[in-house]
Amino acid sequence: MIKIVDLTKTFNNHTVLNNINLTIKKGELFVLIGPSGSGKTTLLKMINKMETPDAGKIFINNENISKIKGTQLRRKIGYVIQSIGLLPHMSVKDNILIVPKLIKMDKSMAERRVYELLELVELEPEQYINKYPHQLSGGEAQRVGIARALAADPPIVLMDEPFGALDPITKSRLQNQICQIHKTLKKTIVFVTHDIDEAIKIGQRIAIIKDGQIIQTDSPQDMLSKPKNSFIATFLGSDRALKKLSKLLVKEFKKKADYVLQDEKEEVIQTNKKYVWVVDKKSILKGWIYLSENAKQFTEIDHKTFALNDNETLKDAVSKMVAQSVKTLPVCDKNGKLTGEISLTDIVTKT
Ligand SMILES: Nc1ncnc2c1ncn2[C@@H]1O[C@H](COP(=O)(O)OP(=O)(O)OP(=O)(O)O)[C@@H](O)[C@H]1O
């Protein structure tokens, strides 16, 4: 959908982007990451013609954007920036309505859209619609910024370090929201950040840019498994094996768990296994039995704190194993029903 061909940009004899080639697929959440000054913002701004290239071309849906007027192009591309850029004298509603008004969207449809979008970014419409930017927290203002970028239903949204200034908890919530919005609306999102954890968390593909050149483009998993060179490996961090685990879900790695019914736990016989899970008649996890050569020891457990659920990551699994000093953990559904188990050996050998 967005094709960048041999793109070069120079500011005052300094080549900021050097022969960039990149294709971003339709509906993809694509992350551009790199050190400060590496040219990320400049590249983003060229996609919506806020900057013009010195050489090279950009195609959107096979159309060369040099043939499209900047103002016209920008109405079809949402743009979210770190400093948010909400107009201070306008209410939340009027800020969101800026582009719908410009494109002369039907008034009642536009107003309905404001409600829909505020709900989408999890801001209660009645509570926020008439507020002014100075009455919002940083996270709320950023969510209004996202709603505004989506107001005219653009197929592409560019996001330039949108969560850079937020505290870690708000940042994490908004990252989850962006992933959810991306899943629901299926927009093409180009997201600039210099936070590698953010890139790995939200990106379907990541391009790492350095001194105006793209060094590697890959899915987070592939990049973490096979960094192309030492710059990428350093950029990904010495804990990149753990980061890789943060992209893998328990449900994809769990295996069948052996169990006995609570009422029959006295009858457990020795096997070559060191333990067996204990469940009640409804398959709710109640504990485990440690089986040694000459003893059987039952330990009661609370599935809420001890077990994993399907949507936790393998990083969560390892962290819980370390915290609980065990090498295997049960996996339960939300009611505590045992659905499998996961072992440290499996994590180490299969990832
Ligand atoms: N309009 C401009 N005029 C002159 N130099 C510019 C202009 N815009 C950007 N630059 C320079 O181009 C280089 C790349 O800037 P850019 O903002 O694209 O980097 P970035 O990777 O987004 O950095 P950061 O992560 O710090 O935001 C920098 O050296 C910057 O000073």
UniProtKB/TrEMBL annotation:
Entry keyword annotation includes Cell cycle: no
Domain ABC transporter residue range list: 2-236
Species for this entry: Hippea maritima (strain ATCC 700847 / DSM 10411 / MH2)
Keyword Transferase found: no
Protein name (Swiss-Prot/TrEMBL): Glycine betaine/L-proline ABC transporter, ATPase subunit
Enzyme Commission number(s) of this protein: 3.6.3.30
Enzyme class of the recorded protein, top EC level: hydrolase
GO MF annotation: an example: ATP binding
Family that this chain belongs to: Belongs to the ABC transporter superfamily.
Span of domain CBS: 301-351
